[in-house]
From TrEMBL:
Organism domain of life: Bacteria
Protein name: Component of SufBCD complex
Transmembrane segments: 20-45, 75-96, 102-125, 146-165
Keywords: Membrane, Transmembrane, Transmembrane helix
Length: 174
């Protein structure tokens, strides 16, 4: 095996039997479950159990991130939504119309992550209209985190099923 072949194997675009794809799946969902509208989960835990200062820090960070998300949504929201729809539609076409394996992997990973981003945007818009404080804020963030974890589990199951189906259909057992 020469150097070119080794590099090509290392960065191969095979998806479901490539360790890089599975690493990207794990990292993506870990980050999505760890951060809600830019607030790390450990800060949420400390505010729930801790002092008034930790609760004030959580409220301040939530306020900052809600304003930041609302600014981005106001300035570039429509354009970003259009680009996201174009990306997902193109990826879906490549994935299911042309059966391109890399596009299938990207679509089954990006689709649910876009849904989580929409859920975080909805949370930010809700907190912008009716700001919550104290334990009400913590309870709302916990509820969103729970649904994020449910979506992550469903997505991981779906990706695993796609991966197994692809690997079984593309292998020669006999």
């Amino acid at each position: 095996m020469d150097l070119t072949e080794a590099i090509a194997r290392f960065i191969a675009l095979d998806t479901f039997d490539n360790v890089w794809f599975w690493a990207a799946v794990i990292v993506s969902w870990s980050v999505a479950c760890q951060w809600l509208i830019g607030v790390p989960f450990d800060m949420l835990l400390r505010a729930r159990r801790g002092s008034a200062q930790e609760m004030a820090d959580l409220e301040a960070l939530v306020d900052i991130n809600v304003r930041r998300i609302m600014w981005f949504q106001r300035v570039a929201g429509a354009g970003f939504a259009g680009l996201t729809a174009f990306f997902l539609a193109g990826t879906a076409l490549l994935a299911f119309g042309y059966r391109f394996e890399f596009a299938i992997g990207v679509f089954v990973l990006a689709g649910p992550l876009v849904a989580i981003a929409a859920m975080n945007l909805q949370l930010a818009m809700s907190l912008h209209q009716t700001p919550l404080r104290g334990q009400e804020l913590v309870a709302r963030l916990y509820r969103v985190r729970l649904w994020t974890q449910v979506a992550a589990a469903a997505s991981l199951f779906m990706i695993s099923v796609f991966g197994m189906a692809h690997n079984v259909s593309s292998s020669n057992f006999f």
